[in-house]
Amino acid sequence: MSSFVSLRAAKVSKQSKSFVKPSPDVADPCHTPIHPQPQLNDELYGTLPSSLDIRTAPNDGRGIYATQPMKRGTTVLSLPPHVQALSVTSLSVHCSYCAAPSPDLKRCTRCKIVRYCGSSCQNNDWALHKRECPALTRWSSDNPKSPVPSDAVRCLARMLWAIELNGLESRFTRQLASMQSSRPVAQAATHTQLAYSLVRFMGISGPEELLKFGVQGAGGVADVVARFTTNAITLSTPTITPIGVLLSPLAALFNHSCDPSAVIVFPTLPAAADNLKLKVVCIKDVQPDEEIFTSYIDTTLPYFLRQISLLETYDFRCDCTLCSRQSTSQDAVDPREQAACPRGCGGVWRVSIEEDGAISKAASEEDKNEIKCTKCGYCIPKEKVNEVQDVVRVGGEGLKEAEKIQNEDPTRAHRLTTNLIPLLAAAGLASSSYPLLALLRLHQQFELDHLTTALSNLPGTNLNSPGTETTLSDEDKSKANEAQQVLDGAVQNQARIARGLSDIFCEGHPVRALALAELGKLLSVDEPWPPAPGSHTPAALLPASSPTPAPVNSGLSPSFPPHHASRLSLALQSLQRAQRELDISFGAGGGEVGKEVRSMAGRVEAELGVWRETRGGQR
């Protein structure tokens, strides 16, 4: 059964999902100006702040525009979702009402599936859960191998039950009905499966039972599913880890751009019994009468794959400023498609991305024109171009396989990323390029698990205290050295990720800010077995699972990462930079992550002060 995450063409999609078609009553789209709809705003969206306005553009349909200047970091919208549902794996660790994580959730005694922070959250959710509870019990009994339906099915059902509760003429229901939809051919099978599962889950036996939800027969069910898949938004933690799905008709009105001016985030998860709220935060300055855009897909993908993703999922092609520039320019090289000049001059050339035998428009043009280094003008030999494109194709296929098996066979998936990353780096791909960046990010998940295990195996004594080296057994020294290798490898890998994301995203994008925060955290971890102060990192300390030494196109020094005070100083710089960007990503304060980063920066600064006082100290 399809989960909400599987409905997305991109794996790391974190933003709102919507597609609005041109208004059918536009008589002359070539000359019709963008105009506000005050009656619609007032009657249907009474919660819309005065700083925003819903307007209709001739080719893009409805969108949300600024009515006043907005600085980056400004929260332009904050509201609770209409309905939400946790993913199956999140049901046991997050409250089903407020989505807050808790180690002591109270399970519903009837269905034994849904959990809450306490009686307040349970009471607040009871109006919907009393309808959901018997449906969950029935489904679990009928499907012992898959006892819980997907988040998509449960969210769809909760939406229909909420419509029944609020009434067909309520503002709540009219807002949901106002969501526009698309039915891409590529999603036909998924939509059919969702519709079938929805009817089964709700226990609907005939068309007449759908009328109380405002649904007319099978066609109506198909329309409900299409509206959901087009407008659903990923529910995520403050670290933008997906934990479910929600619907918010107002937030879904933001149109798509691959270079968005705003993001949908959840800076803090609420305290028990409080409403969950999503926030739309500007990551760029916005001027009056300027449309505010979010992104529907993973925008680390190169131009051609972004277009495929949008077309297959939302049935449209993107012509945002970024896509328009990349589809026509032969000079600018997108960071997502960069390879280093073979002559080592520091310049780059464009690697056009292919998939399933189809060649991007840029690739077609490059067949007619010479591909040159942007710095020295060296004409890249056709053999080199073909060689790198073949490596990219192999890397892309390996990435898909690793993503597919990462949960069921993490060892094999880790082996795939370990083997492919050096191959792509040797071909000259930049850390920001596809599929190298995606492989680095997936690889880091496995490396962090490895690091946790290695650190947990360390002896209990303080490894950095004077004289420790002479008292430790050979086995303990080996464990400490292994942990140091794994930690250094994780730091190096995270630095490449942060560099790649910084080349792609603007300052303040949450994905970029969180990568910088993660780098600062890793750099601040106590070193289990560092080299003596003043020495360089021995080659033996660099783990075999990471590219060794750092490729020249990674932007890292061969001796990276540093040690001792230099490492702490870099940790502090990374955390301070992350804090500045988090204040943009999640609004003032940076949300829960910003609070954590501020606290960690304070501890690192104090530790660095001790190092400076002792002039480096001794191991």
From TrEMBL:
Query: Which stretches make up the SET domain?
Result: 50-297
The question of whether Zinc is a record keyword is answered with yes
Example GO molecular function: zinc ion binding
- Reading the lineage from the top rank, the first entry is Eukaryota
PROSITE patterns for this protein: SET (PS50280), ZF_MYND_2 (PS50865)
UniProt feature, compositional bias: Polar residues: 458-471
State the UniProt keywords alphabetically: Metal-binding, Zinc, Zinc-finger
Q: Where is this region: Disordered?
A: 458-479
Q: Which GO terms describe its cellular component?
A: nucleus
Taking every annotated instance into account, which residue ranges of this chain make up the domain MYND-type?
95-133
What Pfam families does the database record attribute to this sequence?
A: SET, zf-MYND
From the Swiss-Prot or TrEMBL record, give the protein name: SET domain-containing protein
Q: What organism is recorded for this protein?
A: Neolentinus lepideus HHB14362 ss-1
